[in-house]
Amino acid sequence: MTDSAGLLTGKSALITGASTGIGAAAARVFCREGASVTLVARRERELAELTAELSAAGHRAQYVVADVARREDADRAVAAAVAEFGRLDAAFNNAGTAVPPEPMHLMDDASFDAVMDVNVRGVWNFMRAELAAMLETGGGAIVNNSSTAGLVATVASSPYVASKHAVIGLTKAAAHEYGALGIRVNAVATGATRSEMMTGWMAQDHPAREQAMARRTVLSRMADTPEIAEAAAWLCSDRASYVAGATLAVDGGWLAH
Questions:
Q1: Residue 115 lies in domain
Q2: Is the CB of residue 15 less than 8 Å from the CB of residue 37?
Q3: Catalytic residue IDs
């Protein structure tokens, strides 16, 4: 049921944070583009339902329940992708978390640690395992999900801003180190998106907050999750063969102001 002209036909891909939001949208987009997918997240019920949906549509999909902050979980998830599909060609390190914004001097260590463990250590853990697997088969492509908050300060919390800057730093470092070895590493700087995380933040005063976010973009709207997934799929594909170490803003022109 895959399209022979798909961006990712014949590729094995791994997606973290795949149970909901951008990750779940990426699972559907990557499968539509011909990939076999290994879906990774902490919530098994959502993963099982999505995997069943994809399998019923004729796609090759499996899931692994894992915490991205745990190195052993990253190793296990990547090993499962290789065991099931023979190799790992592409990865979208999408898992992320946030805490409510508040003044930095009032924020406790637990909030800082929670964000850094998922957003930075999670990317670090999975990239190390993914890079090792890709080196075994001659190359691949990795995309890390950063944010506009990884390029400029936003209304997000200071740990979130710091963590997303760190993701871009890790992306550049890995691209520099592994590009000549056949592995391209890039990031997407995601703008305001109708994901579970953003919906939670906008729960209070939703219409006003969404309108404010939309006005800041040149397209006058927030993104839908598949729009972020499409960009990640392209960066993982051979059609982005000369893109390495880049941060692609998928933000509706938010940074153009």
A1: 12-245
A2: yes
A3: 160
pLDDT in tens, 104-155: 899 999 999 999 999 999 999 999 999 999 999 999 999 999 999 999 988 8
Neighbours of 25 (CB within 10 A): 23
User: Is 3 a domain residue?
Assistant: no
Record the tokens describing residue 78, joined without a space.
Answer: 């990547």
Single-letter code of the amino acid located at 66: A
Q: What is the count of structural domains for the chain?
A: 1
